[in-house]
Amino acid sequence: SIQNKLNRAFKVLSGKGRISENNVKDAVKQVKLSLLEADVNYKVVKEFINDIKTEVLGEKVLSSFSPDQQFIKIVNEELIKILGEKKVDLSLQNRPAKIMVVGLQGSGKTTSCAKLAYLLKKNGKNPLLVAADVYRPAAIDQLIQISKKADVPVFTGDKKNPIKIVEGALKEAVKNINDVIIFDTAGRLHVDEKMMDELKKIAKITKPDEILMVIDAMTGQDAVNSAKKFNELLELSGFIVTKLDGDARGGVILSIRYITEKPVKFVGLSEKIDGLEAFYPDRMAGRILG
Amino acid sequence: ILKFDKLNDDTLEEIEELLILSDMGIDTVEEVISKLRERCNGKDDPIEVLKEILKEILVISYEDKEKNNKPYVLSIVGVNGTGKTTTIGKLSNKEVKEGKSVVLAACDTFRAAAVDQLKIWSDRTGASIISQGQDADPAAVAFDAVSHAKSKNKDVVIIDTAGRLHTKSNLMEELKKINRVIKKGIPEAPHDTWLVLDSTTGQNGLIQAKKFKETVDLTGIILTKLDGTAKGGIAFAIVKELEIPVRYIGLGEGVDDLKEFNAEDFVNALIS
Ligand SMILES: Nc1nc2c(ncn2[C@@H]2O[C@H](COP(=O)(O)OP(=O)(O)OP(=O)(O)O)[C@@H](O)[C@H]2O)c(=O)[nH]1
Ligand SMILES: Nc1nc2c(ncn2[C@@H]2O[C@H](COP(=O)(O)OP(=O)(O)OP(=O)(O)O)[C@@H](O)[C@H]2O)c(=O)[nH]1
Ligand SMILES: [Mg+2]
Ligand SMILES: [Mg+2]
Fold first, then answer.
1. In the prediction, which pLDDT does B252 show?
2. B124, exposed or middle or buried, with CB in 10 Å at 0-12, 13-18, 19+?
3. Which residues contact A70 (CB under 8 A, 6 or more apart)?
């Protein structure tokens, strides 16, 4: 066909018929640096680049691109695939459905719990918030105050024992006919065995439909350590990535997706009660690649 | 524990990986690696040379503003959730134990229960607190606290500010306003402004430090949550490029979990 003839002529002219290790060397370096600047984990970057190289080397160069450009185009497509090609909804099977919100200190859990309650209420649910952080000064007050903006009740129980509080919340939800329970937990380190055991215990008692780990978008290389540990100990159902209204590139998202393969269900885009949105993988790919 | 008996390409690659994984950032890492190459001769222990290079970056002189100012006014700033309020609790505990009278200014009038949280820390440590409650003007609270400290002859004022992303210009303007108003009470105040940085923060930490420095002239950094597995390597780029010292590190959520920054300990923990 005329198209094939033209293509072949183009190939001869450009002299770069196939993608070789050499002619994408610059693009590989550029992508590697860009992903590291974006805080993608170093080991993930190396594996990701190798996976792409394996796929791409020997491929025909499309006549409308240089091998470099084609490599970057493929990187972008692969990024989107790893980030999760489509939006994943909350899976709320049980009556009442239960959502446990966990993560490191200061990541945005309490704020995200209230935002989730607001969103679910807007969608016709009757949520109950549970204040299971008895450690941080004024954590319970904080949840009560923000929940007013969501117009959702907060169960506080004895305000002393997280295990007793979650048990009490289950009973309260039956009494109140709540159809979703959202458990706010204290921030904790993945290396704090006693606190991680507390989470396991809460999960055992509440049998959650969702265990969402809240991750700060500005987190760097260490995110794979905490995400991996939380996932191993709790079997996460997904992530919420907060503070994306800043200018952090958010490479942490590629790292946690690559390592755990659990979906990012929501992103935090402001401190306000309506500041929780669905995660769009293609928009994120562009931001990470820079 | 890293241990090499000579410097070769494999050794350098392992060191490079360790440093990148610590959040040091590729530019700083490359500078360190090239210094290591030029300084390391056949009989040096590469790890000892590396430690020296890293320590040199972190050691920087600073003025002790607390010694000659009464009241000494310290402002604490940073993005959301890094540990500012908790760090203020720890700092006030240290000061009170050293016999100083401390006033905390509740200038986070925005976030839910921020004032309640600071009040608990003032109760725990014996510091007094000046607050005008939720939604008050932070600058007015700061002025109030500084005036109170002056008239009551207090030693230290520590200002807790709301977490804010450096990309929000109206919030950065608010910080400038707080300082303008404080200066009406004490022209040289705040004597110190320290940025509280979460040690799990990646490369964005450098951008944060730059933006806050442009806005309120930072004089120090506090690195929190070093009791986790994050190494806080972004501190190297911040100290080097902005010439600001790390003053303290946070090692937990308790009132005593604060340590004065020591470059040697920090570097040893990073390399281990
Ligand atoms: N700009 C912005 N700020 C956020 C977002 N999510 C949370 N924050 C802020 O981040 C800070 C920490 O949020 P919290 O909800 O207290 O975090 P947490 O994980 O519950 O903290 P701990 O309970 O102490 O572990 C607060 O200042 C929040 O207002 C977000 O998506 N964007
Ligand atoms: N493990 C650990 N946790 C810390 C440390 N410093 C603070 N935290 C925790 O981090 C969380 C956030 O601390 P805050 O003091 O509320 O942080 P903040 O910067 O004032 O937050 P905003 O005012 O909302 O911006 C709390 O759960 C603290 O207990 C630390 O050094 N180690
Ligand atoms: Mg919380
Ligand atoms: Mg605070």
1. 98
2. middle
3. A19, A56, A59, A61, A62
pLDDT score at A195: 98
Q: How far is the CA of A188 from the centre of ligand 1 (A)?
A: 14
- Determine phi and psi for A127, rounding to 5 degrees: -80, 160
Residues flanking ligand 2, CB < 6 Å: A 105-106, 136, 187, 189; B 78, 80-86, 108, 111, 114, 162-163, 196, 224-225, 227, 250-253, 257
Strand partners, B197: B223
Helix (H) or strand (E) holding A149: helix A139-150
3-class state of residue A191 by DSSP: coil
Position B33 confidence tier, pLDDT thresholds 50, 70, 90: very high
Q: Which single residue is written with the structure tokens 């240089």?
A: A66
Cis bond before residue B46 (omega within 30° of 0): no
pLDDT digit string, tens, across residues A105-142: 999 999 999 999 999 999 999 999 999 999 999 999 99
| pLDDT of A1 strictly over 70 | no
pLDDT at A14 over 60: no
Residue contact A226–B112, C-beta within 8 A: no
